[in-house]
Hints:
By secondary structure, the protein is mostly helical. Helix content is 62%, strand content 0%. It is elongated, with a radius of gyration of 19 Å.
Amino acid sequence: MGNSPLFSDAPKAFPFTMPEEAGPVPLSTNDPELLIRRGFEQNPQLGCELLYHRYYQNLCSYAVRFVLSKEVAEDIVSDVFLTFWKNATYQQITVCYGAYFYRAVRNRAYNYLRQEVSRTQSFDSEVGDNFIDTDTPEAIIHFQELAHRLDAEIQALPPQCRKAFMLNRYEGKRYVDIAEELHISQKAVEHLISRALTRLRTHLTGEWLILVSLISLNSLS
């Protein structure tokens, strides 16, 4: 993912504390973002750090359901946070921060897939011109339906096949590491993931948004 044009200009240094390094964020029972807003009142960077700790992992889990790569998902979420910080977008937020970030991540994931479509010759050249506005209710519902359908298809994979696929795509592990964890050969891992991809492509025929992820990220070895 490091050479994707979508993130080629993203700064390398991230100004916020990583979630695993930060302490737990206490939440108000009535307003889960109350302390975040208070953080912004004290110091914008404190507010951003609280936001990052509160939403980073969940946003990565959300993004990976569409792009099917832990690395790509993390790049997307980090890029959204960087843009939020650099553009001082926090000064313009009048509603739920979480709603803003889920929408922004969804749009970035969608744009990433659009770029992949334009570079994937397996798709008709007209597909890239038929994208719907990602902010419409129809687009949001379609995104959610795709995620649920993909989740269901992954859960329907044979257990060992599903495990290898999820370790590779959702946790970003290499074939050699998966082989060690599952106590099988690296060739067996390659076969399991290839089998998973073939089955998913077959069952998701017609869903280009998912298929482009399965095609463009074919070999994360």
